[in-house]
Amino acid sequence: MALTTFKRLHYSHYGAVIRDSTHNVLLDGIMPARCVESSTVMHLVDPQTSEELLLIGTCNMSTKLAHRTKALAEKFKPNAVFVQAAPYFAEYTKIDTKCAQTFHEELIRNGYVEYQEYVTKKPFTLREIIFQYRKNIAKLWLHHTLRVPENWYRIFLPGLEMKFAAELAQKQGTPILYAGDAFGVQGMEMLRLEKDFDVFKPLWRYWCGMATSWVSEVKDVRKIFTGHGLKDLTETFFNKDQMAWFVRFAHKIFPAQTDACIHKRSEDLFIRLESQLEGKKKLAVVNQWHMEDIEKLWRKKHGIEIIRPPTSGTEDLPLAEIVAYMKGTDHDRHAAEKLTGTTMATESRQNVPYFDENRSHYG
C-alpha cells in the first residue's frame, strides 16, 4: 500500500471511506494488513432460519484464489449455486485447464469475447455512435489516469473460479443460476440509458473537483499499476479496502455509470439470488466490487445488520484526559504570567501560539 494511503488512515478521511469494512485501528491509527484471501470470502448465517450464504468475490485472474474457492465450495457443499456469468458460459466450462490465464486465453480463442460483443451490439445509429465514442473516451481516460494495463479487461471476464463453481454444481446436480456477465446485455443497456455520460465532465471532476488527498492516492495507484502485473495485483493488492477505494473513486468521476454498473447491478444480483434460488446453503461467486453491496442487502433482509457508530463520532475520545490536559495548560499559563508579569504567547506543551480559538471544542 502506498505511503500516502498509510498517512490518510490516521490523519485524513480514509477511515471514513473504509470504516464500513475494516474499522480496527491499531497502534498509530494504521490499519492491520488485510490479505486478499481473507477479504474476498464472506460466510453469512441467519440465526433465525439457519440460512447460509457463502459469498466469494473474484477478479477472475488468480489461479491461486481459484483453487482456494474450489476447496471452500467443496467443503461448504451448497444446495444452490449462483455465478455472475452469462448463460452461454456453461458451454465454455468444458475447457480442460486449471490455470486462470490459460482459461482466459481459451475463452478468447473460442470466441467468447466476440460473442459477448455480438449480443451487446446495437444497430449502427447516430445515438449508438455517440455512446460508443463516449465509452471509448472514458476507457482512454481511465487508462491515462490510472495507467491500467492493456489486459485489464480480463478482470471483467468470467474466470476459473466461476468455472469451478459451475463444475461443482454439475457434479453434485445442484441448481445453478447464471446471472450474466459484468458488461453483458443488461450491463450495457443500463449504460446506454444513463444520460449523464459526457466526455468533459470526468475531466472537470478530476481536475477541479478532487481533493489533494485523492489526487495523491491516484498517483500512488498509477505507480503500482506501472510497476506490477495485473495478476500479481489481484492476488496481493485488490483486497476489500482497496476495492472500496476504486468504487468510491469511480463514483466521484462517473457517478451515474458507477450506480448503474455496480450499485444497481448489485441490487439486481441480490434480488435474483434471493428470489430465483431456493435452498438453505447458497454459494455465490460474483465480481469482487459487488461483495459489499450484496452483503449489506443480505444482512438487511435477514435482520442481522451491523450497527456501526458514526464515522466522525466522539465515542472513543478520552474526554476526561483532554479536559485535564487543557486545565493543566491553563494552570501553567497563569503561573508563568504571574511570575513574569507579561502575557504568555506560547506554552511549553504547545507548538502553536495560545489563542482561545485554538482550544479544542471538546473541552
SSE pattern: HHHEEHEHHHHEHHHHHHEHH
Distance between the termini: 36 Å
The counted number of beta strands is: 5
Major β-sheet annotation:
5 strands, mixed
Please give the order of strands in the largest beta sheet. Answer: 1-2-5-3-4
| Structural class by sheet pairing and helices | alpha/beta
Tell me the domain tally.
Answer: 2
Work out the helicity level: 40-55%
Low-pLDDT stretches are 1-33, 351-355, 357-363
Question: Would you give an account of this structure?
Answer:
Residues 339-363 are annotated as: Disordered. Residues 340-351 have a biased composition (Polar residues). The chain has 363 residues and is α/β, with parallel strands linked by helices. The chain folds into 2 domains: 3-302, no CATH class; 319-358, no CATH class. 55% of the residues lie in helices and 7% in strands. The protein contains 16 helices and 5 strands. The chain has helices at residues 3-11, 14-22, 36-39, 63-76, 100-109, 112-119, 126-146, 160-172, 185-193, 200-209, 212-227, 230-236, 240-253, 255-275, 291-302, 319-340, and strands at 41-45, 52-58, 80-83, 176-178, 281-287. A 5-stranded mixed beta sheet has the order 1-2-5-3-4, with helices on both faces. A hairpin with a 6-residue loop joins strand 1 (41-45) and strand 2 (52-58). Helix 2 (14-22) packs across helix 13 (240-253), helix 13 crosses helix 14 and helix 14 packs across helix 15 (291-302). The longest helix has 22 residues, at 319-340. Mean pLDDT is 80; it is low at 1-33, 351-355 and 357-363.
